[in-house]
Design a protein that fits this description.
By secondary structure, the protein is mainly alpha-helical. It has two domains: 281 residues, Hypothetical protein af1432 (Orthogonal Bundle), CATH 1.10.3210.10; 55 residues, no CATH class. Helices cover 63% and strands 0% of the residues. It is built from 19 helices and no strands. The longest helix is centred in the last third of the chain and has 31 residues. The radius of gyration is 22 Å and the shape is globular. Bound molecules: magnesium ion.
């Protein structure tokens, strides 16, 4: 039994019953509202910059490693398969996937940690919240409103987590964090598709970089099972093709599990609307316990052996200093900022000025941040 890709279940997000845009607009003639969100994201400046932003490996370390852009495309592709299988909104999961990392600083998590430390006395910095800020405020594309004026459902999916303090400031969008409600299924899905994408592509990138080897990967249950099957079936396969063959099977296994387990969660609750999904108590899009455990084990393994590998850490230490130096220089002299940012920063209180500086730094690509650092230091 397979459904046409556009037929939607009653519990899916639906633009006709959705919560709409912050600034009212006439509907588009030939596109649905979530398609329109996706298109606005693709046309945004922040999206184009993802090409030159670090996922794990700093952009100039090699052309074949994932960047935030290729990562986001892989998230979208995984999420869309699941969305169609569950008859939830394909264009909405695509829009959320493509936007989910827009707020990332240059240099990946090292950049975010460093900027957060710089912003400690000014309200902090968090990439997830920044992604929302990019689409709500920072993109300047339209005459009639700031930001991209996306639908509530896309914005709900972008804001994965948030503190109670921030949630209170966000009105309707923050309400679910205070009421302990779930977001719609599309948002739940992208959250997991994100981790499926990085768990798998980071195995590939880590192996390519020579920081992970087959012996240690084989100890991971997800990798190990497929490793042995593929080795038996193709004993002569060279390492590169071998690892691809294992990874494609790992993705296939976890995606299939996610579809089947989520489908039975949905059948059990039998939600009639997206509001039933929101008040379900826990996410319905979820792995089975067995796969969840294996998936989490691989995630932990990558933290310990790749993200905290001394070679990755060495690069991180350098890039952290760069972000600190940039922040200090712009705070000391706003005239180093481009005109539009300088205007926003001038005559403002320290905290507001710091936010302008953080917005500017967060928007930078890796290579632009390095060039700025060299210019100013
Ligand atoms: Mg991501």
């Amino acid at each position: 039994m397979s459904a046409a890709p556009n037929s939607l279940a009653v519990y899916a997000a639906n633009e006709h019953t959705g919560k709409g845009r912050r600034y009212e607009e006439a509907p588009a003639e030939y596109r649905g509202e979530y398609q329109r969100d996706r298109d606005r994201i693709i046309h945004s400046t922040a999206f184009r910059r993802l090409v030159y932003k670090t996922q794990v490996f700093v952009n100039h370390e090699g052309d074949l490693y994932r960047t935030r852009m290729t990562h986001s495309l892989e998230v979208a592709q995984i999420a869309r398969t699941v969305a169609n299988a569950l008859m939830i909104s394909d264009p909405l999961v695509e829009a959320i996937s493509l936007a989910h990392d827009l707020g990332h600083t240059p240099f990946g998590h090292a950049g975010q940690d460093s900027l957060n430390a710089c912003m400690r006395d000014f309200g902090g910095f968090e990439h997830n919240l920044q992604s929302l800020r990019v689409v709500d405020e920072l993109e300047e594309k339209y005459a009639d409103f700031p930001g991209l004026n996306l639908t509530f459902e896309t914005r709900e999916g972008i804001l994965k987590h948030c503190s109670a303090r921030i949630a209170r400031k966000l009105g309707a969008l923050g309400k679910r964090f205070l009421d302990r409600q779930q977001p719609g299924l599309e948002a739940q899905l992208v959250n997991i598709a994100d981790s499926i994408a990085y768990n798998n592509h980071d195995v590939d990138d880590g192996f390519r970089a020579g920081l992970l080897n087959l012996e240690q990967l084989r100890e991971q249950p997800l990798f190990g099972e497929h490793h042995d099957v593929v080795r038996d079936k193709y004993p002569q396969l060279d390492d590169r093709r071998f690892i691809y063959e294992v990874i494609r099977r790992m993705i296939g296994q976890v995606v299939t599990d996610l579809i089947e387990n989520s489908r039975s969660n949905i059948e059990r609750l039998d939600p009639k609307t997206i509001d039933d999904v929101r008040s379900a108590g826990k996410p319905l899009i979820a792995f089975s316990d067995d796969v969840y455990e294996k998936h989490s084990s691989l995630k932990k393994f990558l933290h310990e052996n790749l993200y905290r590998h001394e070679k990755v850490r060495g690069m991180n230490d350098k890039t952290k200093v760069m972000v600190e130096v940039l922040f200090e220089r712009y705070m000391a002299s706003a005239s180093e900022l481009p005109d539009a940012f300088e205007q926003r920063a001038t005559g403002r209180q320290e905290a507001d000025k710091a936010r302008v500086v953080a917005d500017y730094i967060a928007g930078m690509t890796d290579r632009f941040a390095i060039a700025e650092y060299e210019r100013l230091y």
